[in-house]
Amino acid sequence: MSKKNLISITDFSKEEYLKIMELSMQFEENPSQSLLKGKVIATLFFEPSTRTRLSFETAINRLGGKIIGFSDSNSSSVSKGETLHDTIKMVSNYADMIIMRHPLEGSARYAAEVSDVPVINAGDGANQHPSQTLLDMYSIMKTQGRLDDINLFMVGDLKYGRTVHSLLMAMSQFKNPIFNFVAPPELAMPDEYKIYLSNKGIRYFEHLEFNDIINQADIIYMTRVQKERFIDPVEYEKVKNVYILKNEMLANTKPTVKILHPLPRINEIHTNVDSNPKAYYFTQARNGVYTRMAIISHLLNLR
Amino acid sequence: MEKQLNVSAIKDGTVIDHIPPKALFKVIQILKLEAFNNMVTFGNNLDSKAMGTKAIIKIANRYFEDEEVNKIALVAPHAKLNTIRNYEVVEKRVVQIPEQVNGIVRCFNPKCITNAESVSTKFQIINEKPIEMKCYYCEKITYENEIRIT
To answer: Which pTM was predicted?
Structure first.
């Protein structure tokens, strides 16, 4: 059987998305399994990412696997000048699977070519981070009971935010999504994604600020507006407080609406939202463990 | 037939005509003509009715497969190839932009792995006019005006 990797969200078919959702649910019901007993998984983090690494390592531990790897490149042979090619070649001799994060874009696709064992991309620069998208989808599935007919609001940095782009691509595979984009012109959703939606006949709407339309939302997906994205600091000052979600804004939203955020949050969700049952971002992070258990089991043909 | 040829005729071989003047040296690079032992002659900034000015390359005793020569379509999309036998044009071909481009063009993205390690580039052509090519690795698009030959 040929080796399966997960590098980009589009590597998976709609059937595979649904399989991951189903498996995630099973792992959530029964989180301690021994499917990975006797297996060694390498987690190679060429740049630090505590949340993602701990989530993957928890998933491996819950599945009964053993972990080798490093959490930043200073503690690996990379600091001696070893190429990515050689590091991957060596590690694929030792481990049954490689999970990697790397600052360079395309590094994970390249590693998958070099490696003899499956590779999961845990983030390659600003390019792709597909396990985040799958856990976002699982959070939508769990809270709404479906992936079809979702009215999805995306808020904040829609230009550079890889999580919103991947989620848009994935959710476009399901029936009748509606996308609402809330962003300043400087951080608007790039044309290539809008063209993609138009070509598929999918409805989308653009808004410069929050308004009553959020009362129609099933999911509000918040992202961080990052200061360093702005050439003119004055422009940042103008928009930085426009995209802050506050508790009172949720008063007339659907009782079933859920607020997601890939985290870390800075100030874009006011802390007074945290105790609202519509806030879901911390549970969303926990869902990541089940989703990553599902991805690992699927790629290793264990489930 | 030109009255006097700016670039002298060849008995047998290939003439590549209608190259944009700016693309001449890129075409030479793509076809690796600098490594040829055959006689290669070329002219640049020649008058052209169709293009204003053009470049032309004549390569003696050498013939090209489509796959080999289609690579030049990235920089010279209107180039024409004439196969010459005994001073006569026996075949005329136009170049076609290939669906996949391997190892010729650099990815414009400075953060792409192909610009950091010795990884041969791979692109899929997603639009022909103007050329837009998507990197197999970083998934970013290199546009026609950003094309740099490796």
So the answer is: 0.89
